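2024-03-11 09:14:02 INFO receiving multi-entity request
2024-03-11 09:14:02 INFO entity count = two
2024-03-11 09:14:03 INFO echoing inputs for audit
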Amino acid sequence: MSEAPAEIEIDSVGFSGPDASGHFGPYGGVFVGETLIAAVEELALVYQDLSGEQDFWSEYDNELRHYVGRPSPLYFAERLTEVSGGARIYLKREDLNHTGAHKVNNTIGQALLAKRMGKSRIIAETGAGQHGVASATVAARLGLECHVYMGAEDIKRQAPNVYRMKLLGANVVSVESGSRTLKDAMNEALRDWATNVDNTYYIIGTVAGPHPYPQLVRDFQCIIGRETKQQSLEMFGKLPDALVACVGGGSNAIGLFHPFLGDKRVAMFGVEAGGKGLETGEHAAPLSAGTPGVLHGNRTYLMTDPGGQIQETHSVSAGLDYPGVGPEHAWLKDLKRVNYVAATDTEAMNAFHKLTRLEGIIPALETSHAVAYAMDLARSMGADQTIVINLSGRGDKDIETVARLEGMKL
Amino acid sequence: MPAMSRISAIASDRIQQEKKLLIPYLVAGDPDLPTTLTLMKELVQQGADIIELGIPFSDPASDGPVIQRGVERALNGGTTLRDTLALVAQFREGDTETGIVLMGYLNPIEIMGYENFAGSAAAAGVDGVLVVDMPPTDSMELHRRLAAADIDTIYLVAPTTSAERAKDIAEACTGYLYYVSLKGVTGAAITDHESIKETIESMRQLTDLPVVVGFGIKDSKSAKAMASVSDGIIIGSALVEQIAKLSGGAPEKPEIPSCCAVIGEARSAIDSL
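2024-03-11 09:21:47 INFO inference complete, emitting structure
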């Protein structure tokens, strides 16, 4: 199913990025300490060479098909459509992937890359634990040593995923510095990488970080959009009118959007975590309410204070609780190709319950932000139009959080 | 030719005296700004030629735990980039000899704006700037602004840096070239003295700038070992570890000299070479 990344670009004339130095317009780049420069340059070269290597891409396809269970279905959400009242809503079922989210598309690709580069040890950062679990899973599958950095606060909030990673044989390292959340886990992973750069591959979980990560993570996630395109033509004979996906770092969104960027009539909506409301400042929506800056290897929109310190974020969903966003999203925002909006904690929680009750599908809290916005969007559109929501993950991991927020104890 | 920068003047002076450069690093505002000022004056007393002043940043991804905690102490006190510049201006009221290099991460500078930053830094009396997460390829505009304000831009060379890249870095760099002695973060342990010696010798072929070593120097023994193969040394974590024992509030504390003793001891050790 998937092709070499060089061919992916055919669809997206006018939005092809990054350039040779890793920039998406003014965003992206390689802002890391000198010790890591050689490692990211090597990665960029190896990855570039792979674009013509059929063996690699066949192995990747094979893993996606037989291990992950792809292609994931495109599903018509009939009752959700009825209740929303307007456009027909389809769900791209990434929640049905092995490990329960889109994350594994990327970790499989990068773990194969690590093996190809002769690295025996992989490290990863994780917030909610989904990327950590997906990394630990492929490490087990490929027999690689795996260390996952996770903020001490997140370890408390996500105990089942911590145990899951340990069962899979990963070493989960508690990060006690800074705000003890995802951004600090990423700092610690960068420190580990600088220390163990000779034998270590760093699997970044989203389309951020220094070049070539935003590009290669995107390429590994583009399988979502390519399948969606084909399935749309098969199921309703045309491309969707609108695509909706949640945006934290933005990997599931770019995976869905990218193959459609050149299709001008397809509208796109990236939904950020509005937290308690953008006006309160307690959110995780850098594209909606942030400013450009530099963090974790790239220039992008960030939540930063007037003195340039990175701010703590708030979201009901740990997976969106990050102060930055992938540089390609920053660029697509400025180009006005994608509309970036926000859904609050409350709106996401309502959508979580609606989808669960109407379709028998429990979405991840991250994904619930996209569902919330899509239901409003559907109302503003005609019954002859279609929306595809990237149902990026399942909500099993979140049921304790939801119960707690609603005053129950499991 | 522009006038020789303060850093170049200090370096050529030391080389003439056959002495090595001694460069302590501390975080602005750790544990508070008045104490940092007192510490800077004491460091000069104990033999510092240049002081690297860390700009506190919430996400110091190249720093080890000791400096991370120093940065957290400074941020808990609300220290900003503007405060750091004001601190330099205050230090300059009583000292026009010692070199001052600001070391930090890009985002606070990016948010202030390059032109504003370069102008304010020059006005405060800053001599050099080292941005840890800004490699030369992406730094052209900042570098140009700093050069226009007569401020040196200092770059790092790491053990992983290729020979070809080291050449480009050496060409872009002004002031001094900072050799990172190990693969890892600040404050880790140096393990490979022999290859450091070789690398520094090869860098001397690339540049006339002083080549100084930092990241893993903890005591007079490692200071002496590293100074013997380079033009100078940077001591950060070992000093910040001592500063961690001070509690803020009373800058004229009697323990200030002993806090900075690691620098005085390094001075004696490298002067005995």
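2024-03-11 09:21:48 INFO post-check: Residues 1-13 of chain A have pLDDT under 50 and may be disordered.
2024-03-11 09:21:48 INFO post-check: The longest strand of chain A covers residues 267-275.
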